[in-house]
Write a structure and sequence with these properties.
single chain, 9-stranded mixed sheet, about 15% strand
Length: about 500
């Protein structure tokens, strides 16, 4: 009896049992194994490695781990991951080799395969989808490990696995930073989620200098082909260019119109009070217009947010005061300068006045300042050797400009090529666009400073791309967990730096 007690070993699974159950429901391990392939005598299959990394990423611990396999010490790995799996099997070399395999097969391909299976399993509705991209800032240098990648490539070819066409590693470089860290290199994650439920359906990892405007259409088309999707695609203003609109003739879309477009600048202020309709969403009102921008017939929904208008007007008033203070200092400095002729003085004061958005210089005076060769006070008959000019004026607020800014405050324009209001009402256009915040919430999940991907400590861009796929799979798993267990509160996330991969 005593010997039995001594031989007994207690292992924990905590909440990871629930997470593992969701992963099993998604059939993630089986799907990954099918697409990547299994080598003989492997302790861990490719699908089990991904499962282990998701369990690690959703570990919900406050202290960072430095070795991946230490996370599983004292945990029931056989119960969580599979029969015969030990913590020692989850070493850095194994994880690194599997990350290389995922890259060679194609991260988008693997993610889509898993997402399609999960969507069917959990009966995910896809009446609309939301596309957005974000930058992931990283530190350090990233180099290709040619020999190791080549070895993995030979292994995948040996298994007769198909790889994505025109495979090319991402470049971790400087680019437009959504994190406001232009000093750091970065890579880009483009993600498509469901409008109802925020479930990730599509992933594309790209180089850090890729422009959303140039790739968003191809992302939507690829998604449509993979999912045979016939619903409405929603994206931010990066999608709205004349070229993109022409390329999206076969898609139904909603996007935001950039106010840099002249037609948008005119229509956002040219609205009669009788045209406004109160939205069912509290604090919003809408007005419908027609447009053929880019040669595409479309509906423009001008939206005014009461809360945003109030905030914008307050900001405008601060900007006007700030500019007035700077304007007075600039005019004072200019008034001390001397000009060779009145024309030069006019050019200088005109240039200064035109540099301000909310102010102008009025009541301008040009003061003659004669100069004499002889010293002392000249008499009335002495002719000046040279006449120079100084300029003075008064700063006045441009009331018309400020009034126009107040009218525009809190307004934005949404566009859709769904012309039939019975199919998609003006109200629904606004509701769908507001749901775009779902993608932003997903990116906040990935950028949580305690999440294991907040800093990417892998050596190669290929492995960075594979790690990014694991990141989004973790979010996918978490969303399915939340949807399946509405009462479960998800705590903050564990940061797992895979430092030696």
């Amino acid at each position: 009896m005593n010997s039995s007690k001594e031989a007994m070993q207690i292992l924990n699974i905590d909440h990871l049992g629930i997470v593992a159950g969701i992963i099993d429901e998604m059939e993630l391990v089986e799907e990954v194994n099918k697409i990547v392939g299994i080598k003989r005598k492997e302790n861990l299959t490719p699908g089990q490695v991904i499962k282990a990394m998701i369990l690690n990423g959703l570990g919900f611990l406050s202290a960072p781990l430095y070795l991946f396999n230490e996370f599983f010490v004292g945990k029931a790995t056989e119960h969580l991951i599979g029969e015969g799996v030990l913590p020692s099997h989850l070493n850095d070399d194994k994880l690194g080799r599997e990350l290389d395999k995922y890259y060679q097969i194609g991260t988008t391909r693997i993610f889509t395969t898993v997402a399609i299976k999960a969507a069917h399993k959990f009966q995910v509705e896809m009446d609309s989808i939301h596309l957005d991209g974000t930058s992931m800032s990283v530190e350090g240098e990233y180099k290709k490990e040619t020999e190791e990648i080549e070895q993995t490539k030979q292994e995948t070819e040996g298994n007769k696995l198909e790889r994505e066409p025109e495979m090319k590693a991402i470049e971790i470089v400087h680019g437009y930073s959504r994190d406001k860290r232009p000093d750091l290199k970065q890579f880009i994650i483009d993600m498509i989620v469901t409008g109802d439920g925020d479930i990730p359906l599509y992933l594309k990892v790209d180089s850090g200098n890729v422009d959303d405007k140039s790739v968003f259409v191809s992302r939507l088309k690829e998604f449509k082909n993979q999912w045979t999707f016939e619903g409405i695609c929603v994206a931010d203003s990066a999608l709205y260019t004349a070229g993109n609109l022409a390329a999206m003739r076969e898609l139904k879309w909603i996007t935001r119109v950039p106010l840099s477009i002249k037609e948008a600048q005119n229509k956002i202020v040219d609205i009669k009070e009788s045209e406004w309709v109160d939205s069912q969403i509290l604090g919003y009102k809408i007005a419908a217009k027609e447009s053929e921008y880019g040669g595409i017939k479309q509906r423009w929904i001008i939206v005014e947010s009461e809360l945003r208008k109030k905030s914008s007007i307050q900001l405008l008033e601060k900007q006007v005061k700030k500019q007035e203070s700077k304007a007075k200092a600039s005019l004072s400095k200019l008034s001390k300068q001397e000009f060779a002729c009145q024309t030069d003085a006019k050019i200088a004061i005109g240039k200064l006045s035109n540099s301000w958005k909310y102010h102008q210089i009025k009541e301008i005076e040009y003061i003659e300042k004669p100069e004499y060769k002889t010293a002392g006070r000249p008499n009335k008959l002495t002719q000046p050797n040279q006449i120079k000019y100084q300029v003075k004026g008064q700063i006045r607020i441009s009331e018309e400009v400020i009034e126009a800014e107040k009218i525009k405050a809190g307004r934005f324009i949404l566009a859709t090529n769904v012309l039939n209001k019975k199919e998609l009402s003006d109200e629904q256009v606004l509701e769908e666009y507001k749901a775009q915040q779902s993608n932003e919430r997903g990116f906040r999940f990935l950028k949580d400073p305690l999440f294991f991907t907040s800093s990417v400590f892998v050596k190669t861009p290929e492995r960075v791309e594979a790690i990014a796929m694991i990141m989004v799979l973790s979010r996918d798993t978490c969303k399915n967990l939340q949807d399946g267990l509405k009462s479960v509160t998800i705590p903050s996330f564990q940061r797992i730096p895979l430092s030696s991969l």
